[in-house]
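I hope you will forgive my troubling you with a question about protein structure. The record follows directly beneath this note:
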Amino acid sequence: MILWYALLVIAGYFIGSIPFGLYIARLNRHRYSNPTGRTANVAPVDLYRRSGSGQGRGRHALAGVAFLLELAKGFSPTFTGYLALGTPGALGGGSAALVGHTFPFFGRLRGSNSVAPLLGVLLAVYPVVVVILSMVWTASLAAWRYVSLAALVTAVVSPLALAALDAGGEYEDLVISSAVLWSLLTFFAHRENIRRLLSGREARINTPTNERGEARRERRVR
């Protein structure tokens, strides 16, 4: 049994380490700026921002593909763990995938801040909570127009929503503890965004990027 858990965790970590966003950005280098090198992965929102004017359909399509692939790399180890080892296996596979996403083996331990893998994990653990978190994310984005802030609010709400829904049955405490870990990983991945939010330099969702693929910073509103 321990061997199966170990194999699941190792597989989950390597699956979570796959930088799908970066691969899509490279395959479409004729339409998207290359990453600046500060991160070895690219979040779907970065793909959305990097597209030029007049290419709205293309940017939506490619950002959508990246989102689905990022979602799948969180979902697949979690759901496989559930089928093989039940709820503990799901939590182990999902946690390993999120650690791999945050500290990717294939990305020099520098991951992206996409929350799609987290949603994939939660989709396998307790699908109903994803509906709630999607509404929370959408409402937060509509209210403040900051993708990073919406992601952080979603991360905070996720363990609270799981607790309110009594997710996990006899493993409820383990599920909640794992969700707290996942939220902490999300906050770690967004540490630069948090600094920019506090200093008023974070870019909003509709802010375009410059030629280097960096979001143009908005002036701080005093």
